[in-house]
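SDR family oxidoreductase
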Amino acid sequence: MHGKTVLITGGTAGLGQATAIALARQGASVVITARDEARGRAAVEAINQRANAAPVRLILLDLASFASVRGAAERFLSEHPRLDVLINNAGVFAARLEQTREGFELQFGVNHLGPFLLSHLLLPALEAAPAPRLVNVASRAHYAGRIDFDDLRGEKHPYRGWRAYARSKLANVLFTREWNRRFPGIPANCLHPGTLRTTIGNKHSPWYVSLTWSLVKPFLTSPERGAATVVYLASSSMVAGIGGRYFDPWQRERRPSPLALDDDLARRLWEVSERLMTEGGLMR
Ligand SMILES: NC(=O)c1ccc[n+]([C@@H]2O[C@H](COP(=O)([O-])OP(=O)(O)OC[C@H]3O[C@@H](n4cnc5c(N)ncnc54)[C@H](OP(=O)(O)O)[C@@H]3O)[C@@H](O)[C@H]2O)c1
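Structure:
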């Protein structure tokens, strides 16, 4: 990965941090994002120490705010003419209803809409790379997902955190599929990294959900092992030029859910997401 620039969203913890260390060790020039500057700086220091490679750089990004996504993209583009690999890793699980700055249900906003906008805004840098790649961290939770377009704010039906998470992860797989159709020159793949020992179940959960997650955590897979498929899709020659696929934690291609293979649904999700961005004046 020498000479390649990789942007990983969400490098402060978990899978994103493990991926940053692995790719920095392979010689990539790594940029991570964080919502909070102090946490971001601490993460950069931790990654630099463990990777013992070229220093990792930091960009502030809050995917729950379209203005922040725009700011982060502008900052990246002003500093980097080229982006070889974009890894949309940052994500949340929220057991109770929360909303983004613009009022979308938090998991749909952070896990889908924010990355959708970021990926579009970074297109000029991706297009400037000789063999760019897009990697979207989805989840096997997508198998339980349905896209209910009538409730993107999460207010119409009784809120179920798991259902909303599954929807957002199905959106990741559909986005990957439609991206690949529209931008075949920038192959996109997505993956399930395994059930990982990270803090995802502790952050937007009531105490009993957080406690349950903490109790099962010791039995889960390490983020370092989880990073294997992300690193594979970002760097391996085995997947060069391959796109629109869904991979498991052992780097095997898997058939995603029937809904994830629905081209009409993928197109509709894209058009709805795009309309939300253009109506907000965020995209050309
Ligand atoms: N853990 C699992 O079992 C599992 C399974 C399947 C898929 N995944 C997926 O793996 C990805 C990484 O999750 P993880 O398990 O590593 O979770 P994690 O330890 O909670 O890390 C999530 C990362 O995303 C960042 N993030 C959260 N909200 C954000 C926002 N609004 N804007 C920008 N960044 C934000 C976090 O930053 P802060 O430090 O600021 O919170 C953190 O860096 C997610 O997409 C998740 O859905 C995880």
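The chain has a mean pLDDT of 95.
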